[in-house]
Design brief:
Blueprint (H helix, E strand, L loop, with lengths): L28 E2 L8 E11 L5 E11 L8 E4 L8 E4 L2 E2 L4 E3 L2 E5 L4 E10 L9 E5 L2 E5 L19 E10 L5 E4 L2 E7 L4 E12 L6 E4 L2 E8 L5 E8 L8 H18 L7 E7 L6 E2 L4 E5 L12 H16 L8 E2 L5 H19 L2 H20 L11 E2 L8 H18 L1 H15 L3 E2 L1 H12 L8 H4 L5 E9 L2 E9 L19 E8 L10 E5 L3 E7 L6 E4 L8 E3 L4 H10 L3 H20 L5 H19 L6 H7 L5 H5 L7 H18 L1 H12 L7 H20 L1 H14 L3 H12 L4 H13 L4 H12 L6 H9 L9 H12 L2 H4 L5 H13 L4 H5 L2 H5 L6 H15 L6 H11 L1
Parallel strand pairs: 2-12, 18-19, 19-21, 22-24, 25-31
Antiparallel strand pairs: 1-23, 2-3, 3-9, 4-8, 5-6, 5-9, 7-8, 10-11, 11-16, 12-15, 13-16, 14-15, 17-18, 20-21, 25-26, 26-29, 27-28, 27-30
Helix pairs in contact: 1-2, 2-3, 3-4, 3-5, 4-5, 5-6, 6-7, 9-10, 9-11, 10-11, 10-14, 12-16, 14-16, 15-16, 16-17, 16-18, 17-18, 20-22, 24-27, 27-28
């Protein structure tokens, strides 16, 4: 990117002399210590006697000694808050078992045995939502990463693959639907109003893919015929009353089946595919074999309750979990250090799918925006780690943007260098080689290397090095030759007990570029160069005039680029580049470098006005370009996020960044007021539909209001309340309410009250009501967040509701970074209250405080002090303790 990139160094520590010492960190698990399991479990049979308050589990494990193991006669079965009710070996009760911490140890002679273990669970008391838990009268499971050990004792590691037979019995009135992995083989009636079902999954899988759901559910039924003629029954299970909002999810599922056959040659392998929507869920969704469990927000949609963004997210997540059937289930991870093997690859697959289902250009920009907002800060902060980590303390903390999003970008680079056909040959080889196995990232890279005939020796550094590469470019034009002198540096990353990476090696960086002639405005074609040295020269002949350089087209590499160019070149690229991402990047660069300069105090009023004029020129070119569709026009008009802007500074002042960004937005809103009004009038006339033109119109409608709210608030308020009242869909209604939530006046209170009353009882929409207020620009946002936390609709027991209020606030720079430090205290108090209830969700909030080293000293001291208060809690979970320990350093 054309910005003044900064190395990831840190300022002087603002720690005070009486600050508390860092807490003791949990045990570190290292990749280099991996050993194959001593015992394997080829088959397991599970029998559940179900109840909300008491569920009895009988697990029969057929175990055999692993010939590749260490020969140990001790079978270690992982547990978590379990005590065995009974233990039998080969049918005989034994009492010489012992517990080693939470784990059950058994001394086993010989080569093979049947081990039977009975456990008793209380699903209703399981607020962690890991293992078997209750959600609004239904029972469901979440076992990734280490939840199965909360159900029964088992070697809970992904390289132990088993076939599963599952029998469930329970009260038919309470649990009329009984679901598990694989195919249902038998059902029947039991005594006293009970019934039962038996399921069998013929495909060996790790225990993290086990799933069970029991409850009062209804389904949207459909089917899909695979390319080989297999008819697959498709069911999306929801609570009664929600079935009318499942058709988009079903359509997305069928599109996913077909796309994976065509794009990757992967066919589904069971007779049944079930999706269940659950209200209480820590994650977005889970790819359990044949029984995907989803957060309701990624299943339910209709125009009145779901925005266009919600529709897109449902399509992407449905695709992501289905694609895991091969990239994660049929080929799974050897250990959790290889998490990006399945997640990075599957994110790439769902990105490609969504691009093919909609606008490839818009999808690419959206993906990069997510990467820069979440992963770039991770790469430069205290929680930096490679996409294949070397160590962890709590595996739940490694479900990160680095593993997922950067992992996808790294695989995308392989595809860029190989080309689509050779990359497909590599993925085919990967699936053929490792079907039914627990594989490693190296196995994947080797398959691409062999199948695509590509030397990836140096490329492997992307898997082992943390940090975002910083690329500097200097152009030198003489006679008819352009020389691009490039350097790359991968910044040092934090050193926690020897876990950091102070020195890095150059990585291969594939960069797509085009050289535009200044007079004709055309280029001779896109080229691919690979920067793989610390310093490198690239020579381009036949250019009598200095060309305009368009580089990293399509965001071909996840790097930060420093390349000084005249504003007029960026205006040209923003207006005329034929690569959509490069056009977006030029627009972003104009704004970013302007805001860096004004925040740094490097512009006088004359220079500021000149740069604003260039930005307005580029905006005008976008607004009035007849070749642009409105979806793309909407992307080009989005200002860089404040978090991304903060990343451009060695030490950031969030208040100054917020003020200058808002000042630019207000100037654009005022200077282009007539244009925004005309735009709002034009797009307001487009009737609702789900086609691209109407979705683009709705995107622009909200953006026009946002610019007017900054530059002409009275006009914006009038238009926003009118839009709210006339809205026939959630996108328009939410867009108007977002603008109103940041303004004072009776219209704000009217709209908020109406929205709440209109959607009372609809949890997903009430989540939006909380988020819009917590994320608003209203001057009293701190007070509003405090009040919302006491609202009768707020609960700490539902992760969606917690995220709706507090995550929206944590990314609201205006409120979170309030000079008083009150924003930090709000998040610190949340973490302390939430950790005993749901540590996995609590830990997700620590990184917002962990960025203190990159913030100006006063706020840095406040953030650090809040982390120290969290660290002083006597019984922190491993999830939160690891994050806090690393954040404090």
């Amino acid at each position: 990117m054309d910005i003044a990139s900064r190395p990831s160094e840190t300022p002087e520590n603002p720690q005070t002399a009486d600050a508390a010492p860092p807490p003791q960190a949990p045990l570190i698990i290292r990749r280099e210590d991996y050993l194959p399991p001593a015992w394997l479990v080829p088959e397991i049979a599970l029998d559940f006697a179900l109840g909300l308050d008491a569920t009895h589990v009988t697990a029969k494990l057929n175990v055999r000694r692993n010939p590749d193991g260490n020969g140990a006669g001790i079978l270690r079965l992982n547990g978590d808050q379990l005590a065995p009710v009974a233990v039998r070996i080969d049918g005989q009760a034994v009492d010489d078992w012992r517990l080693d911490g939470p784990d059950l140890l058994l001394d086993l002679p010989g080569e093979a045995h049947q081990v039977t273990i009975e456990t008793q669970l209380n699903p209703a008391a399981n607020s962690q939502l890991m293992g078997l838990y209750a959600s609004h009268g239904m029972l469901c499971t979440q076992c990734e990463a280490e939840g199965f050990r909360r159900i029964t004792f088992f070697p809970d590691r992904p390289d132990v693959l088993s076939t599963y037979r599952v029998r469930m019995s329970g009260d038919k009135a309470a649990f009329p639907i009984l679901l598990s992995n694989g195919n249902c083989e038998a059902t029947g009636e039991g005594p006293d109003g009970t019934h039962w079902a038996e399921w069998y999954d013929p495909w060996p899988k790790p225990c993290y893919l086990f799933a069970l759901v029991a409850g009062d559910l209804v389904a949207n039924h459909d089917s899909f015929t695979t390319r080989s003629g297999r008819e697959v029954a498709l069911n999306i299970w929801v609570r009664k009353g929600d079935e009318g909002r499942t058709q988009h999810a079903m359509d997305s599922l069928k599109h996913s089946f077909r796309w994976d056959e065509e794009a990757f040659g992967r066919e589904y392998d069971l007779d049944l595919f079930n999706v269940v929507a659950v209200s209480d869920f820590n994650m977005g969704a889970m790819e359990n074999k044949g029984l995907n469990v989803f957060n309701t927000r990624y299943v339910l949609a209709d125009p009145d309750t779901a925005t266009d963004g919600d529709y897109d997210a449902i399509e992407g997540v449905i695709g992501h979990e289905y694609f895991h059937n091969w990239s994660g289930n049929r080929v799974t991870c050897r250990d959790w250090f290889q998490l990006s093997l399945k997640e990075g690859f599957t994110v790439l697959r769902d990105q490609m799918f969504s691009a093919d289902m909609g606008s490839p250009a818009v999808k690419r920009i959206e993906d990069v925006r997510v990467l820069r907002a979440a992963q770039f800060p991770e790469d430069s902060g205290p929680l930096a780690h490679p996409i294949r980590p070397d160590s962890y303390q709590e595996i739940s903390n490694f479900y990160t943007a680095t593993v997922y999003n950067k992992g996808a970008e790294v695989i995308r680079m392989m595809r860029t260098m190989a080309g689509p056909e050779r990359f497909r040959a590599g993925t085919d080889l990967y699936f053929d080689r490792h079907d039914g196995e627990a594989a490693t990232c190296e196995d994947f890279v080797k398959a691409i290397e062999d199948g695509a005939k590509l030397d990836l020796t140096q490329f492997r550094r992307w898997y082992s090095q943390a940090g975002t590469p910083q690329v500097s470019i200097v152009a030198d034009h003489r006679d008819d030759t352009l020389v691009l002198n490039m350097t790359q540096v991968v910044p040092a990353t934090p050193n926690h007990g020897g876990e950091g990476q102070p020195e890095k090696q150059p990585v291969p960086i594939p960069l797509k570029l085009a050289l535009f002639d200044r007079e004709t405005g055309t280029h001779r074609g896109e080229q691919l160069i690979v920067l793989d040295q610390a310093e490198q020269r690239f020579v381009f002949e036949g250019h009598s005039r200095p060309p305009i350089v368009s580089i990293n087209r399509g965001f071909s590499a996840p790097v930060a680029i420093e390349f000084e160019r005249p504003a007029k070149d960026l205006v040209f690229l923003a207006a005329k580049d034929d690569d959509a991402f490069a056009r977006y990047e030029a627009m972003q660069s104009l704004v970013v470098r302007h805001l860096i300069a004004v925040v740094s105090g490097n512009l006088d009023e004359r220079a500021r006005n000149a740069e604003r004029g260039a930005i307005a020129e580029a905006f005008g070119a976008v607004l009035f370009d007849p070749t642009l569709d409105d979806l793309m026009r909407g992307e080009l008009l989005i200002l860089p996020a404040e978090g991304y802007l903060a990343e451009q500074f060695l030490v950031a002042d969030p208040a100054a960044i917020h003020a200058e960004r808002e000042a630019l937005k207000a100037w654009l809103g005022d200077a282009m007021k007539d244009d925004w009004q005309d735009l709002h009038d034009r797009v307001s006339a487009v009737p609702y539909s789900r086609d691209a033109a109407a979705r683009g119109a709705r995107k622009l409608k909200t953006q026009a209001l946002a610019y007017l709210a900054a530059g002409a608030p009275a006009e914006a308020k009038t238009r926003a309340i009118a839009q709210y009242r006339k809205a026939d869909n959630m996108t328009d209604r939410q867009g108007a309410l977002m603008v109103l939530a940041g303004l004072d006046g009776a219209e704000r209170e009217e709209a908020l009250a109406d929205f709440h009353a209109r959607y009372a009882g609809n949890a997903l929409v009430i989540d939006k009501w909380f988020s819009l207020q917590a994320g608003s620009l209203h001057p009293k946002v701190l007070e509003h967040v405090r009040q919302l936390a006491e609202h009768p609709d707020f609960t700490m027991n539902n992760p969606n509701r917690v995220r709706a209020l507090y995550m929206a606030f944590a990314v609201n720079a205006k409120g979170f970074h309030a000079a008083s430090g009150e924003g930090y205290k709000i998040i610190g108090d949340l973490i302390r209250r939430l950790d005993p209830i749901n540590p996995q969700t609590a830990a997700r909030f620590v990184p917002s405080l962990g960025r203190w080293r990159r913030i100006e000293p006063k706020r840095a001291a406040q953030m650090r002090a809040e982390l120290e208060r969290i660290a002083a809690e006597p019984s922190l979970s491993r999830d939160v303790l690891e994050q806090v320990t690393k954040s404090l350093g």
